[in-house]
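Private note to self, pasted from the team thread so I don't lose it. Backbone tokens:
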């Protein structure tokens, strides 16, 4: 059975690709992006990766 670790991170709308590429390079899989608590252009990304 796979065990997971999770990460949440703010994502800046104007630099989304670079941010997501960096997390992907570190082994994180994007699960979801949702509006941030501040509203406006703020987003929060949820990631997971197998626990080492």
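Design output:
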């Amino acid at each position: 059975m796979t065990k997971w670790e999770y990460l949440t991170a703010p994502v800046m709308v104007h630099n989304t690709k670079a941010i997501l590429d960096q997390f992907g390079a570190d082994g994180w899989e994007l699960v979801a992006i949702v509006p941030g608590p501040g509203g406006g252009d703020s987003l929060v990304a949820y990631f997971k990766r197998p626990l080492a």
